[in-house]
Amino acid sequence: MLDTAFNVLKMIEDNSYEAYIVGGFVRDYIMGIKSNDVDITTNAKPKDLIKIFPNANIDNEVYGSVIVYLNNIRFEITTYRDEGNYLDNRHPDTVNYVDDLKIDLKRRDFTINTICMDKEGNIVDLLNSRSDIDNKIIKTVIEPLESFKIDSLRILRAIRFATTLDFELALDVKEAIMQSKYLLKDLSINRKKSELDKIFSSPNIEKGIKLIKELDLIDVLYLDNINKVKPCSQVIGIWTMLEVDDIYPFTRNELKLMKDIRESIKNNPLAFTTLYYYDLYPCTVAGEILSIPKKEIMDNYKSMPIHKRSDIVIDSYDLIDYLKIEDGPIISKLWKELEIKLLNLEVNNNKEELLNLAKKIYTSSNLVKEDADETKTTG
Ligand code: ATP
Ligand code: MG
In this structure, which ligand is nearest to the CA of 164? Predict the structure, then answer.
């Protein structure tokens, strides 16, 4: 990965521009952590970069950035710029390109994110920030109140880095966050969600939650239930406990998953019927929230007599044939009863037993009557 990154730097420098790896990758490298993406800073403009990397994409999200993939690694290449490109707290209007690396570093969020690496692997630390990484401390590059006013996303990034890296926030950063939290009102809900996702999926989530409370951000982030959150390795489990389904943006699948996890909690995720109707994953998340060892859930799942309708040895035609009935709503009612009896181990998954039971249910219950009524009204 590093070799590929050096090659990207060389390709830019071969065209007589400067280029450095910057930010997260270098910070993580110093700390011995593996990074997934590489940010590069350069004085080459996007139109120059497109000539050097003909397959590059211009990134609309990060205005003026160019995305290059080499050996399946994602490089985000951004041209040196100075502050002033964030109007209305976030959206870059025009970009002010500059020709000096140091000016570019000064518009960045935290000192720990300003360290660079050149194409030979030398650390380039123009703002003398190395000690902040060594001391695990998060400081803003400029005065913190000013920094958060320019971009309120930095408030959440500060908490995110403190959580994922297990760093401390400098005192003036903490104070500035408490004074600037109202700025988060104008930050898009998507950006809030993506930072919170990173905080909530960190194994160090406890620290993030502690900071959100300590810095008095519960209201502005709508996290009223944060005190009810129990440890959970799955971020969807955390969101389930927070109950902010209609505040934060979730996909249809996530919304369904959260509902299923809540139902699994209510119905005991160890029960065969719960495992059957809500499926294994929601039950394991529910189990984690209820402090049930995963192994117990897995063992129960393995012991289930059936996992899905098609595991049942008879089908609808068998029922229709045997009971001499018509297809219709009656059949689904019978299925439901048979499934429950199977899952409660009141009958074996055996053709004869199931058909006998179906007959008993059909004749003894009011299903016959219902069936007749329904045929009358529908026919
Ligand atoms: P990671 O990639 O691990 O999330 P990162 O520090 O690389 O962390 P990115 O979001 O990839 O973060 O941004 C790359 C660099 O761009 C940062 O290191 C920082 O220097 C700068 N940067 C990112 N977001 C901001 C911001 N909101 N304000 C100022 N500088 C920023
Ligand atoms: Mg990065």
Answer: 1
Residue whose CA is closest, atom 9 of ligand 1?
24
Q: Which CATH architecture has domain 1-134?
A: 2-Layer Sandwich (3.30)
Query: pLDDT category, 274, cuts 50, 70, 90?
Result: very high
- pLDDT band for position 342 (cuts 50, 70, 90): very high
* Ligand 1 pocket, residues with Cβ under 6 angstroms: 23-24, 37, 39, 108-109, 113, 151, 153-154, 157
Among protein residues, the one whose CA lies closest to atom 6 of ligand 1: 24
Q: Could you name the CATH architecture of 136-223?
A: Orthogonal Bundle (1.10)
Distance CA 344, CA 183 (A): 55
Point out which residues pair with 19 in neighbouring strands. Answer: 42
- Pairing verdict, β 57-59 and 65-70: antiparallel
Nearest CA to ligand 1 atom 10: 24
pLDDT tier at 93, thresholds 50, 70, 90: low
Give the number of other Cβ atoms within 10 Å of residue 7's Cβ.
Answer: 13
Mutational pocket test of ligand 1: of 67, 113, 165, 198, the residue with most ligand atoms within 8 Å of the beta carbon: 113
CA 24 to ligand 1 centroid distance, Å: 7
**Residue 335 contacts residue 314 (beta carbons within 8 Å):** no
What are the boundaries of each domain within the chain? 1-134, 136-223, 309-378
Question: Facing residues of 78 across strands?
Answer: 41, 65
Nearest ligand (C-alpha, residue 104): 1
The pLDDT value recorded for residue 375 is 57
pLDDT tens digits along 44-92: 999 999 999 988 887 665 667 899 999 999 999 999 999 765 555 555 5
Which CATH code fits 309-378? 1.10.246
